[in-house]
Amino acid sequence: MDKEKFYITTPIYYPSGNPHIGHCYTTVACDSIARFRRMQGYDVLFLTGTDEHGLKIEQKAAEKGVTPKAYVDEIVAIFKKLWSYMNISYDRYIRTTDDYHIETVQKIFKELYDRGYIYKGEYKGKYCTPCESFWTESQLVDGKCPECGRAVTEAAEEAYFFKLSPFADRIEKLLLETDYLQPKSRAVELVNNFIKPGLEDLCVSRTSFTWGIPVTFDPGHVVYVWVDALSNYISALGYLNDKYDDFDRYWPADVHMVAKDIMRFHAIIWPAMLMALDLPLPKHLAVHGWITFNGQKMSKSIGNVVDPLVLGERYGADAIRYHILREMALGADSSFSNEIMINRINADLANDLGNLLSRTVAMCEKYFGGTVHNVAGTEAIDTELETMVNELTAKVTADMDDLTIPQALMEIFAVIQRANKYIDETAPWALAKDEANKQRLESVLYHLCEALRVCGVLLNAYLPTTAPKMMEQLGLDASALDLTKTTYGAQQTYTVHKGEALFP
Ligand code: ME8
Questions:
Q1: How far apart are alpha carbons 177 and 403 in whole angstroms?
Q2: What is the mean pLDDT of each run of 10 residues along the chain (504 residues)?
Q3: How far is the CA of 32 from the centre of ligand 1 (A)?
Q4: In the sheet that 291-293 helps form, which strands lie side by side, from edge to edge?
Q5: Dist. CA 423–CA 445, nearest whole Å
Q6: Residues framing ligand 1 (Cβ under 6 A)
Q7: What's CA 349's distance to the chain center, in Å?
Q8: Cα separations (Å) of 206 from 71, 217, 219, 461?
Q9: What sign does the CA torsion over 125, 128, 131, 132 have?
């Protein structure tokens, strides 16, 4: 039990519609980080879940003539089905309608009130119903909601507010002087837009709808979305509830990953809540861009979503995982296009990786009856490939530490491409024509098996269906997927078994 812990979270998604490829991105990215850390030997807790309260859910349920709980139950089942299909290895799934979460939120709300950080006032503002957001005049774009571009309405009601100003200085320091926010380039924008003009207090209760967590000491008020939602990261560990007892072990979180739409809440509101509760702050907030479609954010309220299950059925879960992990860098937006995706699947997965494996395995069978041993290489290209293999794990580890996942994949595929070129350069089919070259031929094939094995071990974090299949064809089992065995020569003998194409 001395393993170092690693706690990573996705946002909890709104089950106001089916999950789309945007939700998939954050979840798959977190999954690959969680898998990588587990391979490194960390004691990982990977949390995801759903944010189930609010007016929008209440309205959608009413439209369908069902209770809000029945409505979300159905959509949560679809989220879970998708995560299982995508091989998401979450350890815990939190629903904000779970009793233990409700208990924690009520206690946090009361605690903040008792400490004087929450007070009663009146909320007036421009409200966008589809986005469930109040906006200030200055945030509106052409008088419309800056998120979805729809009309906003004037709204006012009695509400509780969370005082943010006492934390402004500490938050400014957190953003500008620590490596909390990744990429840090966004810190200045946040400080200039929200902190410098003076942090506005946050509305944290509503009376105009009932589908929420009741404020225990003021019936008629329900806790308004962000205090409810953000608390999930600690209620899921058992903070102020008896369901779990993991808070001391796993808090603070190592990585919260979100897209830029909710950066502000995680960069300002969440640290403020934790400061107000005297709790340690999370170590990193990783913020990625949006997956766009025809230049707009892919979103349920806009209605331009791509259904990952439909894509997955056509191309397979690992192909989708690969595409989104390879395309999406922290920082930038990335437009979704079937064409780019199909090109990538063909070029990287089917041609480079798939062919390398099938050619290697076929040649081992054809020339050596399937079994090859470690025969030392004598040429410069052998050493070059060996060195690339030996250096790969350190490079990928550094990329994963920096959360530059596309870079990690590029490093792995650089070795795969080098190995393909190595086949062309060594021309095993020509070597096979002369018995005198038998040793050389075996050395060449062994080099290829080693490159494939080490790439397979590392790919296991990103392509968890494909990596075991690679091992199987190399005649190894799942125990070979071991990050401590990624040096060249760690496996001495191969007895390969030809299998189906990895990406037909
Ligand atoms: O905001 N591109 O839930 P949500 C990239 N419940 N990522 C995207 C995306 C896109 N087009 N669309 C969605 C909420 N995402 C709150 C969160 S957390 C305490 C509460 C991903 O269902 C991305 O991670 O709108 C984004 O931050 C999140 O889904 C928003 O999910």
A1: 19
A2: 91 93 94 98 98 92 96 97 96 98 98 98 85 78 89 89 96 96 92 92 90 96 95 98 98 97 96 98 95 77 79 89 88 81 92 97 98 96 98 98 96 98 98 97 98 98 98 97 97 97 91
A3: 18
A4: 296-297, 291-293, 334-335
A5: 9
A6: 11-14, 22-23, 25-26, 51, 229-230, 232, 258-259, 261-262, 290-291, 297-299
A7: 21
A8: 21, 14, 11, 42
A9: positive
Ligand 1, atom 21, residue with closest C-alpha: 23
- Nearest CA owner, ligand 1 atom 12: 22
Q: How far apart are CA 319 and CA 324, in angstroms?
A: 9
Q: Would you state the structure tokens that stand for residue 422, as one six-digit string?
A: 């190595």
Which tokens hold the place of 162? 């969370």
Nearest residue to 166 (alpha-carbon basis) of 272, 281, 267: 272
Say how far apart CA 115 and CA 143 lie, in whole Å.
37
In whole angstroms, give the CA distance from residue 296 to residue 304.
Answer: 8
Nearest CA to ligand 1 atom 10: 22
Inter-residue contact 28 to 324 (CB < 8 Å): yes
